[in-house]
Amino acid sequence: MRWGDQLISGDGVGQEPTLPGLRGLLRSVRTPEFAGTVFHEVEARSALNEVRGPSPLPFRWTVNPYRGCSHACLYCFARNTHTYLDLDAGHDFDSQIVVKVNVARVLEKELRSRRWRREPVAMGTNTDPYQRAEGRYRLMPDIVGALARSGTPLSVLTKGTVLARDLPLLAAVARDVPVGLGVSIALLARDLQHQLEPGTPSPQARLDLVRRITDAGLPCGVMVAPVLPLLTDSADGLDALLARIAAAGASGATVLALHLRPGTREWFLAWLVRERPDLVPAYERLYRRGAYVDPAYRRALSERVGPLLRAHGLAGGVPTVRPPAPPPEPGGEQLSLLPLPAPGTPMGPPDG
Ligand code: SF4
Known about the structure:
Elements: E1 7-9, E2 15-17, E3 25-29, E4 38-42, E5 48-50, E6 61-63, E7 66-67, H1 91-95, E8 96-100, H2 103-111, E9 121-123, H3 133-137, H4 140-149, E10 154-158, H5 167-173, E11 179-184, H6 190-196, H7 203-215, E12 220-227, H8 235-247, E13 252-257, H9 264-275, H10 280-286, H11 295-311
Parallel strand pairs: 4-8, 6-9, 9-10, 10-11, 11-12, 12-13
Antiparallel strand pairs: 1-2, 3-4, 5-6, 7-8
Helix pairs in contact: 2-4, 8-11
The structure holds iron/sulfur cluster.
């Protein structure tokens, strides 16, 4: 059933359509500070999500306090997950945000289980935990606190400057558990950012966030993702971006080419047809095999990026966290936020 018929009282701001089929739904609200956005507040039954089956990712567990993301990146690979809610992968993904209001309480309970092995938990691998909604709901402090109290390493990848609010907490818990922080910055040009990432903080604001994280004593990596063929992939453009990232104090960077999975593909290509029809034949050729860019393009990008990463001292990739036990590996407690290939090798995201 499509949503839209049933009405529920909002946050004192009138009535909003709700999602009748959404499990655990408490209410759907709209607030003046978030024009055009509806928050569907739900009681989640679980908080820890296991990455099932064979996976190249170096973590098996994630926590996602939100579904949908107001950062609204056209290229977001998570778009298709909104169709499971009977919402669309386009504008609904950007504006119909599911909020798991009890996520920290449920997480705390799950972390107390004897079966919990304190494996690293990654956040920002599906939707962004520090998207704008986090300013309203403040779910992350309790999530971070619960993970730290249980001795669980954690990592966060984000585009959201709301993270700066929690830096004192993150710096404090980093004394007890490994903490890995990454900021995602795909491009510098404001016109492209407005078009492709309309809900995100500016690239400069994210560079400032990198600086604030490192000033707080925490290493911070940057995901340069996705690199958009023929739009943001020139050697000069990447050189300028990596120079700014290095100047902001990042400890490393990982560069990833665009993936176009179902849901994302349609949304992104609709923009391309509208704004850059001249590039459509090239994209059809580069993505003719499906979600992944042509291997020859990946190799060429890798060859272009590797020397730039080394020149800017960013070849270490995104900082990593490893489980505290057992057994600790020589050289510190670190496990990657994302699979880190040889320095400079572009690979597929997730993103925050
Ligand atoms: S790419 Fe990341 S920040 Fe952008 S919409 Fe998706 S989850 Fe949000």
